[in-house]
Sequence to fold (495 residues):
Amino acid sequence: MEPNQRPHLWYKSLYLRIAAFFFVTLFLLGIAYLIIDVVTSKRYYDETTQKINAPVAEHMLLEVNPFINGKVQEDAIGKIMHSMMAVNPGLEVYLLDSIGKILSFVVLKEKVKLEQVSLKPIKEFLKTGGQQLVYGDDPKNPGLQKIFSATAVYDEAHNLQGYVYMVLASEKVDTITETIRESYLLKMGIGYFLVTLMVAFLLGLFVFWKLMKGLREATLVVNRFERGDLHARIPPQSTTELSLVADTFNSMAATLLRNMEDLKQVDTLRRELIANVSHDIRTPIAIIQGYIETMIIKDDSLDAPQKEEYMKLILKSTERLKRLVADLFELSKLEARQVQPKREVFFMAELLLEVAQKYTLLAHAKSIEIESKIGSQFPMVYADVAMIERVLQNLMDNALKFTPDNGKITIYLTEFNDQLEVKIENSGEGIPQESVSKIFDRYYRVPNETPAESTGLGLAIVKNILQIHQTDIQVISRRFGLTAFSFRLPMHITT
Fold:
């Protein structure tokens, strides 16, 4: 077994656990179904029996009047009760007075345990005419409720004398009926239950298997990713929940992979920075060291002007070394995207005029004219003002370096839809066509360019700053003509 591969435990399988839960749920539902079926069938039997036998008690009064002059006719009602019970052995007949006290009955006396029954269910029965299921007291079994038939007994003056109360299912009949019904329901219920359980269980297993197919595929992909396959992705899923899981995992995996690539890139940049610093600072350090050693060795033979010249060369190399190291660190942070723009709203026209003013003295030293074609009605832009100023300075440095004496630098600001375009144009020999696509690479110098004039990082810094602002630098150059660098920034329109 591989070190990162976990052992597969069947009892930890989600599918099997869901199947077991589903089986137990169906089993409990089946038992509940049997209980409900038994209770419902009993109520159905009781209600049917009561509705069919509802008029039995009333029909008894047609054969005999239980009361004469307020007294019970024991002989007459005894005969009729015996006759009715002979026809229907399930009947138990009781004669009640007006408050529910048992006056007479035709059952074994020792089995009758109540002296009085509740009149509430009897009155409810009479009110509905026996068309609704009502349970009454069982005189032989206190606490039990039975179906019954009942009728009120009145004299000729329509005075209530008592009630005829008939329990429709005697204890013996109840026992036989319950035994038969339970046997029948048990056989039928178990059969239905087993068939339903098996069909529902198999159907549920199939449905769960189909639903979990995507989850199994997702698990395999996660295991592949864990073992080092960082490009493993979960395929699109049909269900919304699994699709959300797949999208989340794929997004997480892509983020991890991108972060790893970024770390590799940062490490590569770090290595390049070390290599470039060690390479590029070697020349100015060698110059500084060489002149200092010369001044030490030839101190007695050097006159004051020579010493001053050497010191100027040392100072120039020191300044170039300082500028080179600063540009290297700035470019490395930009390329690693470790610098985030602090955007704010400002007037681009004012920034351009300010930068142009700073370069006026340097331009006059080379007899170069700086012309600004900038209006005063342009709206503001939304960007990092310090970074954009750095871009303008690098472009102006580049323009001054390649503009010949008595040449011209022109600064344009133009509106394009919802953007402002900045263009810095200079006269001169132009850029060779084969160098146009390379001038934004670090350390690239146009042929015939003096190395001491530049660190070779200015335009690379410009490109990276503008990329951070989601825009790009454009260059147009004609050989022995004009060269123009331009970029665009979104305008900030107030509402």
